[in-house]
Amino acid sequence: MSKAERLIEMMITINAKRDFTAGELASEFSVSKRTILRDLQELERAGFPLYSEVGAAGGYHILKERVLPPIAFSESEAKAIFFACQALEYHRDLPFEQETLSVLKKFLNCLPLDVQKSIIQIQNKVVFWIPDRHRDSPLLKLIFLVVINRHAATIRYSSTYSESTRTIIPIGLYAMNGLWYCPAYCTTANQIRVFRVDRIKEIIEEKPYPKEKYPMPASIQEYLEKAEVKNDYHMKIRLTDIGVKRCESECFLASGLKSFPTGGGIIDMEINHAALEWVADYILPFGKNATVLEPVALIQLMQQKIDELYQHYCK
Prior knowledge:
Layout: H1 3-15, E1 19-20, H2 22-29, H3 33-45, E2 50-53, E3 59-62, H4 75-86, H5 97-109, H6 113-125, H7 140-149, E4 152-158, E5 163-170, E6 174-176, E7 179-186, E8 191-196, E9 200-207, H8 220-227, E10 233-239, H9 241-248, H10 251-254, E11 257-259, E12 265-271, H11 276-283, E13 290-294, H12 296-314
Antiparallel strand pairs: 1-3, 2-3, 4-5, 4-9, 5-7, 6-7, 7-8, 10-12, 10-13, 11-12
């Protein structure tokens, strides 16, 4: 085994360990302890995060922020990584925004020049556009850590109409239409609610919670799959061609949209009670390009909003 091969193998080996001695590595790689010490010094100079302790219980340890060993990628795999990362480019906030930029810069600089040019060409021609909501989420990374640590958090939350303090037990995080959402069990409401991360103004306290006490989905995927089964109301909205085109850009309504070959279309889907207000606000600017057929609750809500607008502008 050449020295270069040994150093790579050693990085892989000690990265999987937390504690080790030079003697252990010398035995494992069938070289002298002096050779191992020289190799470890080279890895430290290259930036591998090692520190040593002397004494009977001493040895080498890897710092928490470990450097991962080299991984070989094919040209197509390298392009796939940049293509996947490009889907995050237009998110206003990311949990590890600076680290993402650092990773991509390091990775791109290690690639052959022709592959770099090919990736830049992809970046110039393909984009995953996300609307800029002009809403910052400064606590996104802290909420991310609460989620990963499986803790509860007491937060100060600013909703549409009021500000309140409540304790939530996050299920996970998801991004949609340029905003981050955190579905969580709210101990104040004693049910699962969805919180917009940009509206979380302060994390007052974070702590563990008795996991068996609250009815929680096991994962964010399970929550989202269950959330798709919306059975409070059966909703039908008849659309003109213009209405169809406007609904095609809204992923929630597009899931129940059916276009007709002769023109126009219909939204036919199940929704829950919490979605009524949002649907009414979204459909109202459509004017005659959308006609709510059912449920009655949505029709009444539309009438109420129209009357409020009339009172506001015409009285």
